[in-house]
Amino acid sequence: MATTQQVPESEAATAIATGTSRWDLVRRSLVRRRPSAGGLFEDSSLQPESPVDSVARNDGEGDKDRQEVDGNDNANRDRSAGKFVSRPSCPAHRRVKESPLSSDKIFQQSHAGLLNLCIVVLVAVNSRLIIENLIKYGWLIKYGFWFSSKSLRDWPLFMCCLTLAIFPLVAFMVEKCAQQKQISEPVVISLHIIITTASVLYPVLVILRCDSAFLSGVTLMLFACIVWLKLVSYAHTNSDLRALNELTEKGEALPNNLDMEYSYDVSFKSLAYFMVAPTLCYQPSYPRTASIRKGWVFRQVVKLIIFTGVMGFIIEQYINPIVQNSQHPLKGNLLYAIERVLKLSVPNLYVWLCMFYCFFHLWLNILAEILQFGDREFYKDWWNAQTVEEPVHKWMLRHLYFPCLRNGIPKSGAILIAFLVSAVFHELCIAVPCHMFKLWAFIGIMFQVPLVLITNYLQNKFSNSMVGNMVFWFIFSILGQPMCVLLYYHDLMNRNNGGID
């Protein structure tokens, strides 16, 4: 049984003389007793159990009158405890603390309130800009923005997109022959190089030979690049599985750190699923979800339609007037060019963020839900990146960066190769639909190589800070993309007008 509250001898003697009960003495002692600084009762539900409660709980044979007294005691004790809350003598400063906005504390707490403030400010500012733009230019979105009779002339690009399925089929036949050991490994590698190269060159030739719309050309080139990346992953993964399978057939022990989760088995079903799955990294099987959430898919489709409309509105209502009223940034007045770039940076950033959200979040999640694809980590928190030193995409790490390191290429060389491949494909996706090769996209991607040195230096100099992240956002949103948009637009206009700016 728990011990009861100790009552002073003088009070005990008084109780004997006056006939006061032991329970009243204990209650008075609790009321008079001043709690310690660390034990003030901010919440009555968090009060420690008193001796009265302990005795009353263990004395299960007490009569009904005593239970009523105990209930009254608890109520009185709750009221008396409130008298000691936040007393003037209670210490207000107990330990060393940092200010919430100090550099050591700011990234260790929630910023939900500041995020809500930013959203309110953005809504207010952009609402004013929308009204001002409508007053100045009127409604600029014309009929036929999404579809027009000119789009019917792009049917060769549509047919080319459909025939891209031939290349995965040929790659499967090559892998099937390799599994049956009908062709040697060097022949397999050579055939895969021919197949992947043709999967990119074929759409390039079709676009260059047709007078197609820019949007149609970009769409076809994106599909072609995705097919190329998937075919490289398919060939590379099967080659590695084939090499490991040969080692096990010879009875050689594999390294302990090598986890063989899949056996070497060339299956058309696995290839077909891989070609439509929202991933660029091939493996014979993937984690799958149990069911398809139809209501969830419908909500994501509605969001996709809304944000696509927002992108179209910003492009037609804001970006087009700014670009059309500008001069070539490398041929005009410097201050005027800076003003155009700064004015273009905000709507261009909005379009890029909407495009990222629509494709990498909404569309890939919709596709994953329909195919019951389990791994939904299509991107990481790249917006918090403090450096741009290493490639973050799984395909780049799996099939380019780490293979370079395993073959003795230094880390800096592997990073340079990764940026080089990325720059080539960015240039193809923009230059080919524009029917001109100015290498602005290529230069923009390769400019990130010295940015690696800058961000690494700043991060090492100012440890535990986001200086590198701020430099990344400044280059990305203000200097990089708006400048490329102006350069490509004016070069395209010069080409269409016969070199007249």
UniProtKB/TrEMBL annotation:
The active site is at H426. GO terms for molecular function: diacylglycerol O-acyltransferase activity. GO terms for cellular component: chloroplast envelope; endoplasmic reticulum membrane. Its main location: endoplasmic reticulum. The keyword Transmembrane helix applies. InterPro entries: Diacylglycerol_acylTrfase1, Oat_ACAT_DAG_ARE. Keywords: Acyltransferase, Endoplasmic reticulum, Membrane, Transferase, Transmembrane, Transmembrane helix. Residues 56-81 have a biased composition (Basic and acidic residues). The keyword GTP-binding does not apply. It is a multi-pass membrane protein. This is O-acyltransferase.
